[in-house]
Amino acid sequence: QVQLVESGGGLVQPGGSLRLSCAASGTISNLDVMGWYRQAPGKQREMVASIVMSGSAARNYGDSVKGRFTISRNIAKDTVHLQMTDLTPEDTAIYLCYSYTGTIDWGQGTQVTVSS
Known about the structure:
This protein is mainly β and 116 residues long. The chain has strands at residues 2-7, 10-12, 18-26, 33-39, 46-52, 59-61, 69-74, 79-84, 93-100, 104-106, 110-114. β5 (46-52) and β6 (59-61) form a beta hairpin.
């Protein structure tokens, strides 16, 4: 099992930026993919971004964040980062980190609130 710890959430004004981090520990010898989903009140869970943790570092983004969010990895630290720019109130949600090693594990989530 993989343990995931997110950090970096908070309150930001529209147009601002935030950087989220997610550190993996535990059984991570076959860590394949890491990424982020988000859950806003009254909405379905939405895929935000993912990155392959070996070789190609292929990235995938949800349509609503393309061009604004960037996911990156630090393989040595088994960590991924999500750089979020040009934030809008529609980005307000709990951001959940996940990992895939054949099974999916989830972090506890970190709250991002975009408000003036």
